[in-house]
Amino acid sequence: MDNFQTVLRFFMNQKATIGYSFMALLTIGGERIFSMVSFQCPCNRAQNFGYGLTFILGPAIVLLVLGLFFSTRLWRLLTGCCINPFKLCPRGNCFGCLRVLTNIFTGACVAPLMWLSVALLNGTFYECAVSGLDDNLVVNLLCHNKTIKCREELARVPCDRSTLSSDERMELLLMLRAQSQILGWSIIIIAAVVGLVTSCIANCRSKVSYLQLTFWKRYMEKEKQQFESFAGEYASKLAERNMQSFFDNKDPAPFPFPNHRAWEEISELYTFSRSEQYYSTLQRYVEKVDRDYTPEKRPVMELEHGIEMS
User: Mean pLDDT, consecutive 10-residue segments, the chain of 310 residues?
Assistant: First the structure.
């Protein structure tokens, strides 16, 4: 039992690494499926570039959108900001809001960068895209010291329909693949260096020590787990109370519930400051001396406009 808990604790501590590894495997698998099943280069000078670029950038954009869509921090920041724009920059901290948005966008870029790296390292999409370019610089680079036939047949090189000799075709494909892989490794190296530098800068500018920062991260994880557990229990109690009232045909029993202002305050994104040394907005709210203990008279949402939930 102790060995099982040790293994479980190890996986919990390494869940970020495991998550990124799993994401990388999914990206590689998705790229292989696209290459073998759906990708068919048209081998036409007018269509190659657009078709190849679509397969390089299209999935990356979709992954970026999905990363932003599933970002809890983004929705905590944006929910209700059209009604109250000051929620974007609470207490006038525009720099803090910009930093949070940058962190959210950076986190959402992990999967797209993985896709770009894998797609370029494979080279299939790049070969199709670049072979359709009509730019003299690209054509001169690829067809240097070759016959005029190379320029005419360049767009057909990714397919077997080229009339070039097999040696010339293989030479062009190797050049295109080499360029693609250089770009792929460049993205990986730049992303790794930028990630390391930004992490170093963030830790150097940290207002708390390393161990306290570690404790902070652990606390946020536990608070999230506890909130989900308590929210589930309270939602169950409220649903049971409403069902009881409905089927018994009587007024509902009193039910203690946080007021609207309390929900607003704990939903803010919190950043550490020396003037308020709390670990979360929830802790800041419950430890406030002058906080409003008045519960909602009825556990209902007061909406100015309707909202549809399924």
Answer: 49 54 72 76 88 91 91 85 74 74 88 90 90 78 76 82 82 90 94 91 85 88 92 93 92 85 83 74 86 72 54
* pTM for the model: 0.80
Give per-residue pLDDT as tens, 4-25: 455 445 445 555 555 666 677 7
Cβ contact 262:285 at 8 Å: yes
Q: Per residue in 254-269, pLDDT tens?
A: 888 888 888 888 888 7
The pLDDT value recorded for residue 140 is 77
DSSP lists the bridge partners of residue 276 as 273
Using alpha carbons only, what angle is made at residue 279 by residues 274 and 283, rounded to the nearest 5 degrees? 110
Note the pLDDT of residue 297.
67
